[in-house]
Amino acid sequence: MASFQFVIKDAKGARSEGIMKALTMEEAIDKLTREGATIISVKSSAEGAFRGRLSLFDRLMLTIYKIRTGVGLKVLVFFTRQLATMFSAGLTIEKSLSNLEKGEKNKKFRKVLIKMSNDIKKGFSLSEAMEQHPGVFNSLYVSLVKAGEVSGTLHTVLDELAIYQEKMEDTRRKVWSAMAYPIFIIFVLIVVVFILFYWIIPMFARVYENFNADLPVPTLLAISISHFIRDNLFITFLLVIAFFMGIFLVYLTDKGKYLIDSIILKFPVIGNMLKNSIFSKFSRTFSILMTSGVPIMETLELVGDVVQNAVIGTAVRNARKMVKEGYSVAGAFKKTGVFPPTLLQLISTGEETGDMDKLLGKAAEFFEKLVDSVIVRLTSLIEPVLIILMAGIVGTIIIVVYLPIFNLGLAISQGAK
After folding, report:
1. pTM of the model
2. Segment 183-194, tens digit of pLDDT
3. CA atoms of 120 and 375, how far apart (whole Å)
4. What φ, ψ does residue 138 adopt, rounded to 5°?
5. CB 164 within 8 A of CB 104
C-alpha cells in the first residue's frame, strides 16, 4: 500500500495533517470524506520538491537550462494574474491558456503556453503540465497549484499566488533599485582604473625612463601591472573572465555558496536590507503555503529553497529536521540562531492560536516596511560612501604614480650621475 500525506479540517474547522495508507489516492480521499473531514490537500508521500545531491556539472547544466528556458518574473506575474481572472470568470483552464497564448508577446513563454495547452488536451492536470517546464515554474509554484487542484480551490490559490508574486516583484524591484547606483559606480570605477593603467601610467613610465632613476617599489609595481595589461590585453580580459567564472562556479557548490552568502549578509547596511528582504520572502512564502494546505514538512522544504540564500536556507532545513524529531516550529527556528525574535514570537503565537498563516503574513508586511526604511537610509548614505571609495582607490593609484615626482630633484641628480 502507498502512503499519502493529507491536510484536512474537521467539523469544528480545526486544521490537522498526517499520513495514511491506501491503495490509491482515490481510496485515500474516499476514506477521509467518509470520516466527515473537509479535504484541503492529499498527495503521495513520494512526491515533493526534488532534493538530491547534484554534481557541480549537473548544477551548471541546470543553471544554463533555467537561463535558456526561464522567463522574467514580470511575465510570470502577469500570466498568473490573467489566469486567475479568467478561471474565476468561469473559463476552463484549456480555454484560458488558449486565450493567453494568443496574446503573449514573449516568444519563449508563448512556446511554453502552447506546450501546456497541448498537454492539458492530452489529459494532464495544470500542475502536471507546469512540471514539464521547471525553468519557468519552480517547485513552489507547482506545489501550490497542485494543492489547489486537490482541494478544489484552484481559483483561490491562483488569486493568492498572483498577489504573492506581485508582492515579491515589488520587493525585488525596490532592492534592485537601491543596488543599481552602487553597481553603476563600481562599474565606472573599474573603467577609470583600467584607463589609468592602460594610458596614463605608461606616460609617466616613459618620463621616468629618461631620468634613469631608482623608483619606489609601489611605483615599480604599478608600472609592471600597466606593462602587463598593455602587452597582454587579450590575456588580461581572459583572466578577468576566468576570475568571475571561478566565483560563479564556487557559488554553485554548497560550501562556496554558504561562504559568499555569509559575506554578503555581513555587509554594512546592504546586508541588513538583504536580510530583511529574505525574511519578508520567507514569511510570505510560508504564509501562502500554509493557507493553501501544503503539509508542514513540505512547506519547510519549499521555503528552504525559495529564500535563495544558503545561510538562511540551511537554517530552515536544519529546523525541518528538528520539527521531524518532535520540536515545535518556533522552537526549531529558535535553535538555529538565525531568525530574529520578532519573527520567532509571531510563529510561536501562530502555533498556539492556529493562525500561523495570518501572523506570517503580518511578519512579511513588517519586514517589507523594514526594507523600505533601510532603502531610505541607503539612498542617503550610499552616495558619499561610494564617492569616498572611488576617491580613495583612484587617489591611491595617482599618489603611487606621483611618488618619484615628489622627490624630483633627487631623481634628476641620480640620473645625472
Report:
1. 0.71
2. 888 889 999 999
3. 44
4. -75, 175
5. no
